[in-house]
Design a protein that fits this description.
The structure holds two protein chains of two kinds. Chain A is mainly β. Chain A has strands spanning 4-7, 10-13, 19-25, 31-37, 44-50, 53-56, 64-67, 73-78, 87-94, 105-106, 110-114. Classes of the chains: A mainly beta, B mainly beta.
Chain lengths: 115, 116
């Protein structure tokens, strides 16, 4: 089945120690998104890629970076995690184009703990 | 101003009964899409139903229906015959056609508890 896969599902890191979260998709979608979601809150968009074009949200801290080496893979790098970065990180994809009907397909998420 | 407003932080419903989750939205675009997603405790966001701004009929998907009232800018989710597995967080979301690019805006969510 076509899907969005995130690895790992659970990640524990130490304060200040860089961490990378990965996302892959078999849907061949043009757009990939990274969201941060804290407990009982709405997902917060960090950035998205349309193909290779990177779009950063204005309020995304510089501590968060992303790479998309090809259509299938996208990575979230947290350069120096702080305690406030502990959250669920959701990867999502959608078809390209301007149609408003393009729903997002989400991965299962990676729950990040910062010690 | 909030683009998507969900005023019910939590809702309880008896198993087998229907429940309505409220959502209002704010946009100046003529073309937009409205979505509902379900998020169980496992964390994955699951797409439930979609309503386009130009759709004249209310969307339905199995036990889910969307009560779309365009003039009131509301897009309430109705779940019929609630099941225990419906207990989850529910997010209303919007994608704007002209100004939104490829972004989806999410509401704060409503946590639904289904009682046996």
């Amino acid at each position: 089945d076509a899907m969005v896969i995130q690895n790992p599902r659970y990640q524990v890191t130490q304060f200040g120690k860089p961490v990378t979260l990965s996302c892959s998709q078999t849907l061949n979608h043009n757009v990939m998104y990274w969201y941060q979601q804290k407990s009982s809150q709405a997902p917060k968009l960090l950035f998205h890629y349309y193909d290779k074009d990177f779009n950063n949200e204005a309020d995304t801290p510089d501590n968060f970076q992303s790479r998309r080496p090809n259509t299938s893979f996208c990575f979230l790098d947290i350069r120096s995690p702080g305690l406030g970065d502990a959250a669920m990180y959701l990867c999502a994809t959608s078809r390209g184009g301007t149609s408003v009907s393009n729903e997002q397909f989400f991965g299962p998420g990676t729950r990040l703990t910062v010690l | 101003a909030q683009k998507i407003t969900q005023t019910q932080p939590g809702m309880f419903v008896q198993e087998k009964e229907a429940v309505t989750l409220d959502c209002t939205y704010d946009t100046s675009d003529q073309s937009y899409g409205l979505f509902w997603y379900k998020q169980p405790s496992s964390g994955e966001m699951i797409f439930l139903i979609y309503q386009g701004s130009y759709d004249e009929q209310n969307a339905t998907e199995g036990r889910y229906s969307l009560n779309f009232q365009k003039a009131r800018k509301s897009a309430n989710l109705v779940i019929s015959a609630s099941q225990l597995g419906d207990s989850a967080m529910y997010f209303c979301a919007m994608r704007e056609g002209n100004t939104g690019g490829f972004k989806t805006i999410f509401g704060a969510g409503t946590r639904l508890f289904v009682k046996a």
